[in-house]
Amino acid sequence: MTPGELALAAGNYTPVTHFILLGFSNDPDLQKLLFGGFLLIYAMTVVGNLGMMALILTDSHLHSPMYFFLSVLSFLDVCYSSVVTPKLLVDLLASDRSISFKGCVVQMTFFVMHATAESFLLASMAYDRCTAICRPLHYGYVMTRGTCLQLVAASYAFGGANSALESGNVFARPFCGPNQVPHYFCDVIPLLRLACANTAVAGVILYVFSALVLLLPVSLILTSYSLVLLAIGRMRSAAGKEKALSMWAIAIFYNTVIFTHIQPQDPPMIPAAR
């Protein structure tokens, strides 16, 4: 049994009202270095994506489905990083790394929602490029403005549904023992380990739905890639090949997501500050 389960069984516990995010390190010099690095990356991310959105919005030549999806992707990137990074930057300089229970719920909910929405949006972008390359004569008829809006709405719908399920799966369980999270934000797996109740069923639910959320868009992307590769073999124009190569940015992102979040090993535990 975990320490939380022992406390719950003994009836000698106090419900957790806040969590402590242990972060990366307790070394002050390293924390300052990390603060500078993450601040620079975050600033570049926000400025770059907002600049991309402004450029696409103001330039009428970029009002096409591909650039519409890129603008939505930029918006998701800003939201995705803003859910976690500001709190991380504060924690790197502050001695108090606590976050309220409700704050942790909100952070996890929005993090999972935007991460899932981005996953499905990338699948929509792959479908868009596949249609443009494999069915160029029907592209304008298939990828209408209404279709693009529906694909974005569907991405957010999947994100909201998965976020509600995974957050509910975690916070429906009691938290009465240790409140130190060995992570720099309220992620699903580290918090699930702190729950007082048996989390075997919750773990199965988590992995099943996480696999579905990744496998469905990945399957769509791989199918699109296969069709595009076949079309590339029949292409003779350099312009057509350059348009096809734009899809590889999606592959790079998905490789990062898969190797970051779908790992069987437990993340290393970071000792608490003394």
Automatic annotation (TrEMBL):
Residues 48-274 form the G-protein coupled receptors family 1 profile domain. One of its GO terms (molecular function) is G protein-coupled receptor activity. It is found in: Cell membrane; Membrane. Keywords: Cell membrane, G-protein coupled receptor, Membrane, Olfaction, Receptor, Sensory transduction, Transducer, Transmembrane, Transmembrane helix. The chain crosses the membrane at residues 33-55, 67-85, 105-127, 139-158, 204-232, 244-262. It is a multi-pass membrane protein. The keyword Nucleotidyltransferase does not apply. One of its GO terms (cellular component) is plasma membrane. Putative odorant or sperm cell receptor. Belongs to the G-protein coupled receptor 1 family. This is Olfactory receptor.
